[in-house]
Every structure is written in C-alpha cells, then in structure tokens.
Amino acid sequence: MVSDPEECIDCGNCVEACPADAIHPEDELPAGLAPALEWNARLAAELPMATTRVVPLADAEQWQGRPGKWGTLPAGLAPGAPVVPHPAGP
C-alpha cells in the first residue's frame, strides 16, 4: 500500500490505523525510510486508491520490521532504485 502525496491532507488517520506502524508523517519520517518518499509518490500514480480495510497477507507478521526487505523486491521496484519503465500494456 502507498499513500498519494498529492491526495494526502496530513490528517494522521492512516498513521493511527496502520497495524504495522509503517506509515509516518513526512516530517517525522525515520532517516532510513527517506528513499520511500519518491517510491511512494511514483507508485501512488500507478496503484488504485485504497478505500476499504484490507485483510493482511498471511505472512505479514514475518515482514513487519524486517531489515533489508526492500532488497527482496524485483530490480527497479525498491525505494531508491533507478526507475525501470513498465512495458506497454496489451
């Protein structure tokens, strides 16, 4: 899940609602998460807006707080990675 910085009104509701404590106000973002700002903005334009509560994936707890998890993403998808253009649709 990502948050669209163009749509965000900084109300803090998503920060409080996130069970994994994975959402931070931009001015309180831990230094290690700084690369996620660009990543979040880029993906927000590509993904649908979350409008309902989603059941966490079965393995969600094993990923919560796991160091180095960005490195498990496919090349070009991790925060701070060079942008890899998506292939054209059908």
TrEMBL record:
Transmembrane segments: none
Record domain 4Fe-4S ferredoxin-type: where: 1-28
Keywords of the record: 3Fe-4S, 4Fe-4S, Electron transport, Iron, Iron-sulfur, Metal-binding, Repeat, Transport
Keyword Chaperone annotated: no
Region Disordered: start-end pairs: 64-90
Biased composition (Low complexity): 71-81
Keyword Electron transport: yes
InterPro entries for the chain: 4Fe4S_Fe-S-bd, 4Fe4S_Fe_S_CS, Fd_C
Cofactor dependence: [3Fe-4S] cluster; [4Fe-4S] cluster
Function: Ferredoxins are iron-sulfur proteins that transfer electrons in a wide variety of metabolic reactions.
Name of the protein in its database record: Ferredoxin
Organism of origin: Streptomyces chlorus
